[in-house]
Design goal:
Helices cover 35% and strands 31% of the residues. With 179 residues, it is α+β, with helices and mostly antiparallel strands. It has a domain of 53 residues. Helix 1 runs antiparallel to helix 2.
Length: 179
């Protein structure tokens, strides 16, 4: 192994994460209050159940909020690019592992990518909708065929990848020439 370089990218908050948080807070109050209201007609002990549902709901809302904190870690060790997803600094899950020499296409922007179809798409970008900032890497995986990785590497990661890129990719990506 020649070296180890890593980068951590935080996923941007989107409308979807905000909606999930709002729904969680609304359900925190609606469910226990509904149980307490029903207690008037059925049994007074349901008030206690509603209270415990509220206390348990606070934990569930905290858990939902913490699950929305996502970071992606890109690390290069030798000729291998590892991408991992870190959820609320507690859980780490490998997204993919790619040999840099197997990458066939690496470009910023989705001009040449958006009309192609891939068997599997690995998303590890700060903002998936920001196509101008995202890098797109196409590589083969024996189990799936052609796959796509969407990510946001910085210059250090790109520089660490250069020695291991194939000749055509180096010419096209680094020197902006056709090979």
């Amino acid at each position: 192994m020649e070296g180890f370089i890593e980068q951590v990218v935080k996923r941007e908050k989107s409308g979807k994460t905000l909606a999930i948080k709002i729904i969680a807070v609304v359900l925190l109050f609606v469910i226990p209050l509904t149980v307490i209201y029903i207690a008037r007609f059925i049994n007074f002990y349901l008030v206690i159940v509603g209270f415990f549902l509220f206390i348990g709901g606070i934990y569930v809302v905290w858990w939902v909020f913490s699950q929305q904190k996502v970071e992606y870690e890109y690390s290069i060790a030798g000729d291998t690019l590892d991408v991992a997803k870190i959820i609320s600094l507690r859980k780490r899950k490998r997204v993919c592992r790619v040999s840099i020499k197997d990458i066939e296409v690496l470009e910023q922007g989705d001009q040449n990518i958006k009309n192609r179809h891939f068997r599997k798409v690995y998303t590890a970008a700060r903002n998936v909708n920001n196509t101008k900032e995202n890098y797109y890497a196409v590589f083969p995986v024996p189990a799936y065929g052609k796959c796509l990785l969407v990510f946001n590497p910085n210059e250090m990661i790109i520089e660490a990848m250069k020695p291991y890129m194939n000749r055509e990719l180096k010419l096209k990506f680094i020197y902006n020439k056709q090979g």
